[in-house]
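quick one, two chains, predict together pls
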Amino acid sequence: MSDLLSAQNLFKQFPGVRALDNVSLTVAHQELVAVIGENGAGKSTLMKILAGLQSPDRGQIHFEGQAVVLSGVQAAQSLGIALIHQELVLADNLDAAGNIFLGREPRRGIFIQREVMREKAQRLLDQLGAGFAATTPVSELSLGQRQMVEIAKALSLDAKLLIMDEPTSSLSMRETENLFRVIAGLRKAGLSILYISHRLGEVKHLADRVVALRDGRNAGGLSREEITHDAMVRLMVGRDLSGARPVEARPPGEVVLEVKSLRTQAFPAHEVSFQICRGEMVGLAGLVGAGRTEVLRALFGVEPPLAGEVQVAGKALLARHPEEALAAGLALVPEDRKALGVFLEESVQWNVALTTLKRDAKGGVLVNEKAGAALTEELGRQLRIKAASPDTLVGTLSGGNQQKVVLGKWLALAPKVLLLDEPTRGIDVGAKAEIYQLMEKLAAEGMAVLFASSELEEVLAISDRVLVMHEGRLSGELSRAEATEERIMELATGLSRSDLG
Amino acid sequence: MKKNLGISLLLLLVCVATALGNPNFLIPYNAENLLNWVSLYAIIGVGVSFVIITGGIDLSIGSVVGLVGTMLAWLLTKKGWSVPAALLVTVILSAVIGLVHGLLITKVRLQPFVVTLCGLLIYRGVARWLVHDGTLGFGTAYDGLRWFSNGRIDLPFLGDYRLPVPLVILTVLAGLAAVFLNKTVWGRHLFALGRSEEAARYSGIRTDRLVIVSYVLCSTFAGIGGILFALDVNTVQPASQGNFYELYAIAAAVLGGCSLRGGEGGILGVIIGTALIRILINSINILGIATQLEFVILGVVILLSAITDEVIRRNRGRRQLKTATPTG
């Protein structure tokens, strides 16, 4: 048997949900297998089972030809299977070395041999080309660097199979590229990798083989030559998705949002100026930390700007509070949907009607439940929110439907300018297309749409115009015709692509 | 509402058990007194529930009760102020205390626990200093005013039983509070703020203003309670008047379904919670249980209620998981 890992006919039942329904998966030595699938397809359950976090109801797992029972994380680790978590789980108050050897510190008697531990940790980090000291406190490391710590920890355990769950979901482009280099190095060193990602571009770039899951079942696989974006989407969704891209750019209307010399609290030294027209969809691209979120937050008054001139439909606005921005006709769909966009423990109607309570109040004071119900009904249909009833708690909805609730909450106010921060983060492919179509429709109806996104495919697919930010400044503006992945990357990194190597 | 049902049943159970154990429990004198006390405590409980719904806490309630009671007695008997002036000043004082709490919490960004803990110390100290720790009595000169705290209204259909005036006051205040919380836009915004202050702000809600309003309401209710408590006992000892009342109020709110995490709670629940606490204490007295055990019994009941609540919450979560769309 040449496979490193072979999992056959796995079943896993959760209350009311069959998470895995006869799933099989093999990984050969030095192979990188990407597991793709929409939210709820069973990817995470499969990974948790392979990492020993959960046990399957039925099924066999062979590792290096031996039948094994993964009874816990320790059991999996001792075999050589290590999971790099989606949310990195490190002790903030320890240094990198302390985290790498947490619970396995080299000791003499009851005392930790710090020097030995640090030396060993440094060797592992250098091997990864991490470029920071093992004595750095984790709290001072960036997300990408923390990931290196996790990987170093896996290496210190002599891992043969690394499971990476959405490893790039919160990395900047530069950190992502570094991660890819590390992955290439790990494979040369003989490791196999199971790679889970929403980002199909990455999968295409990295994977030897793709395994797709759908509704807890195997939905097919693709060999290296067969991997294309469309083929992957077809496997995940089970049907073809028509691109959201309109045939031609819309003719812009009059200027609705005019921003002059805006200075944000995060980048007080830099001024940002741009205009957005009625019916225009503008993408705001850039690396993580380039200041996109800060511009949106400043415009919306969440983090009031230090200075600048903002005009919404000809009226001056420098919002000190979101209420003022709303009154002027701005709305913001925030990046962190669960924490800032919706109230998970409340119902769909409660959420959707929240922003219109005042407008629709009886006598300006009393909540008008009837108006709220009518509004929810109307927007639910318009946005195709999939919920059992208006009383369904938003926390039980899928990410895509939660995002529609956020959109609904703002559309109820008929804003002139819609700001969106990472509008499709954590949303599965099918629902993404729906969100794009909604954004298109709103622009077509005359709304000015400005959205920040880290996904270049997304920016390229739906923008009429692309603004690119780099370290707090607007580093360039590209028309639809000019915008290519390369041009955006040049502007976003502040260097030309070839310099990146 | 299911939650209120559970605690109402418990309340009924305690009443029936006590009535069976000692028939005196139901005689007009005891029943009226009991309702009188329940009403006074419930007023401050209703006040604190606003703050708890925002996810905050007010530890200064007992000291506000003490300070307001002392001030009222001092202004009336030592300073010779007229009744309306003294009432007005004490109520305004308590509102200002709440305003200061709210401003410190929202503008200076101090934690509610710290702000109101300092309040607890300061107002108690001021009350004692004001009258040099002396005991002040209203005497018999203010019996008309004292009607508000211990008056009884004869109603034809109640037979020997009479309606305590504080119960009327509570009904009015609680009714207003319930309408505010459940029917008005501000109430809805207050719950949103309690669920998540940031998300509420992102929805265009002026969260700072609402937090300030809730602390002003809390202290004002404590002030009104303080006036009534002082009139009820008729002699005010600044060192002890209102001691621990904040804890009774918070316990009642928790018993009545307020979550200290914020975002959950209701007025009716708080009133039932207060009733349960007061009636338990009354039961301990008239059933001849050692009064040393009073706090033990209270503590155990509140703890059991919290455990039940958590178990129910978890089961509900599990049920929803069954019907929910799976993620990941």
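Residues 39-251 of chain B form one domain.
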